[in-house]
Amino acid sequence: MQALPGFRDFLPDDCAARNYIFARWREVARRYGFVEWDGPILEPTELYTKKSGAEIVDQLFNFTDKGEREVALRPELTPTLARVIAAHEREFKKPLKWFSIGRFFRHEKQQRGRLREHFQLNCDIVGEVSPSADGELIAVCIDVLRSFGLTAADFVIRISSRAAWESFLQEKRGLQGYASGQLQHLLSVVDKMERQPDVKTNEQLARFDVTAVDVRQWIAEWNQKIFEKNSVAGNTALALLHTTLHEYLLPRGLLDYIAVDFGIVRGLAYYTDVVFEAFDRSSKLRALAGGGRYDGLVSQLSDGASKMPAVGFAMGDVVLGELINETSAASEQMQKAIETAGKIDIYIVIAKEERRADALAHVQTLRDKDYRVDYPFTSEKVARQFQTAEQLSARLAVLFGDEWPQVAVKDLTTGEQQLISNQELLAYLARSLSLSS
Ligand code: HAM
Q: Domain 344-436 adopts which CATH fold?
């Protein structure tokens, strides 16, 4: 029997790769002062039907539970975060900087970079309206990617603003622009434009009286506006985006990682202002990460009781893994981590069964000292035990046999062997391992 389509088995090397990714995610998020939190895997379906937008609702793994509740496996974390903030807002000093690493489920068509179960790092800043928070968040996204050995030659953050889109459309269409439902629909078509043929896009755009060619022309025209002084000065949303870039990212030396691109609008319904997505430079792969500002979501979930501005992003493990594998420096760095994860420090060779008790006593002491130690469960030929030691990439083998109360310590890299009295073993191993590390 196989795993379900879009679900993965994680064999030890896959798990080591996953742990490597999680370790970098956690390390960089903490470096930025984010604290870790988590929510439940199962939520009321309503949390998503109301807030996430049509696309994600079509992809829900949902069912009726034994208590007749409509429930869904979480497809994303943001609605849970908004629910938790709405309920616990008073308990925490704002702004909050929270991160989370967890598993998510979307019933998508399985394709390269998109599975039905994936992991995400979510980083969110809640309770801060200043674009300074947007800058901090984009910086953490860049630094997370850099921690894998990826550079500005490997990835780019494409940044845009939904509020600017709205204001540009108003200019194009006269004062009314589009009603909010219509605007949401238009943006969801634009979000998919790059991944589908124009014929399909044109069908979906027909009700707005525009074509894919028109929209691409708008995007090219708007991409220039950020460089025009007058446009920036006359447009609050564009000025905010400009500020985020020039006041909060330029001083950190991070502009090389960024491209203003109004082709990015994001598929999720709750974004209000700056939005961004991270892609591989050659745009071969799906998005590595995506996020933006969602200033209305907490308020909607608390029926207006709590107005909490928020900005966040999520990065998935699937596309990130693909990009790491395709980038030689990054994949070497990951391979090293995978190899180290499988390694042990010391293999205890039991050459004489009478010595098993003495060997086990040392196994225990060494493990108490945090060394990674293994030994054979039952009697085995000595040559076989050395083979196992090599397969486990042990650095040292310690042989308990006829020489007792002395033991033979063999350095498995150099092949050198030394007889040591068992009382001195601990100090000797500590010295040898620190020299060879
Ligand atoms: P999203 O763009 O839907 O945003 O997902 C974020 C990232 O998760 C994507 O860029 C992608 O790397 C990964 N991802 C999403 N779906 C799949 C899938 N089916 N298979 C593999 N990877 C996938 C959100 O989820 C927002 N809640 C992010 C956010 C946090 N916004 C504010 N705070």
A: Rossmann fold (3.40.50)
